[in-house]
Amino acid sequence: MTVLVVGGGFIGSPVVRQLVDRGESVVCLDRDAGAIPDVDGVEAVEADITDREAVAAAVEAADPDRIVHLAYMLAAEMERHPTRAMQVDCVGVDNVFNVAAEAGIERVVFASSSAVYGRPGNYEGTVSEDATIPAAFTEFPTYLYAATKQLNEYQARNYTAHTDLDVVCVRPSLVFGPGRGSGATKWASSFITDPARGETGHLPLRPDERLGMVYYRDVARLFVELALADAVAHDAYNTGGHVVSVREAAELVADLFGADVTWDDDADPLSLVADLSGERARAEFDYDLTPLEDALRDHGDRVT
C-alpha cells in the first residue's frame, strides 16, 4: 500500500517511520523539505497545502491508496497569524480532502484534537467520542485552534456523506515526546526534556490540575492503524491518555531523572478535557498506550 503523509513534523515523523517498518510505501509532503524525516525509501515532496494545484500534483504523482494529514499551524502561532491560520487549517485541509475525493482515494485520516470537547466542566467522568460537544464559539470565543478543529470535523463528515471518500479523525489528548519545539502546550514535552538533561523542568499549571498524557509514538500508531485498516467503524477516535495530576507528573519525572520539576500555584486552569476514553480504538484495533513511566524513559533516552 502507498500512503501519502502530509506533514513530516512532530507526529508525522513517527508515522512515516512506523509505516516504513510495516513494509508500506511512503511519500511525505511538507512545505519545508528539511522537515521530512530522512528514512530510506521515503520520497520527499516539498509543497504548501494552501496551493491546491501543488497538492493535486503531489497526489497524482504519488498515486496513494491512503492519506494521513498532519499539516497544521499550532494554537499559539494561529493566534499571532489568524489569516494564515485560516488558510492552512481550513482551506489547506479542504484542499487535501477535495483532491483526495477527486482522485478516488479511499481514505484520509487527519488530526483533530481533544480541544474539540471544550472545557472539562462540561462533563462528568470519562468522555467518549459519542459525547455531545458544545460549539467552540460558545466555549472559546477567541480560540481559533478549537474552532478550526471542529470545522475540520464538519468538513470531513461532509466529504464522507457526499463523496466516495472516507474521512476519519484522531482526537489526541495532551501529546508529549521529543521534537515538540513549539505550540501552546510545548511544556508537555519540555518538562521532561529539561530534567532528562539535568535541568529544572517546569509545568505552568496548578499542582491539582489533571492531565491526559499520551506519548507521540502512541499517537502515531493510531494514525497508522486507521490508515492501513481494511475498514473502520467510526469517523472519530480518541487516543485516550494517562490521567495524572500535575503534581504526580512532576514527581514522576523528578524521580526518573533526578532533577527538580516545578509548577505554578497561581496558574489559570487548563481548558482541556483530561479523561478521554480510548476504548473505541482499543476494541477495534487492540490499541493501547505505552505505560507512562516507560514512555517518559524513552523520551529521556531520545533527548540525551
From TrEMBL:
SUPFAM superfamilies membership: NAD(P)-binding Rossmann-fold domains
Residues of the NAD-dependent epimerase/dehydratase domain: 3-240
Domain of life: Archaea
InterPro entries in the record: Epimerase_deHydtase (IPR001509), Lipid_A_modif_metabolic_enz (IPR050177), NAD(P)-bd_dom_sf (IPR036291)
Pfam families hit by this protein: Epimerase
Record carries keyword Ribonucleoprotein: no
Keywords, ordered alphabetically: Plasmid
Name listed for the protein in its UniProt record: NAD(P)-dependent oxidoreductase
Organism encoding this protein: Halobellus limi
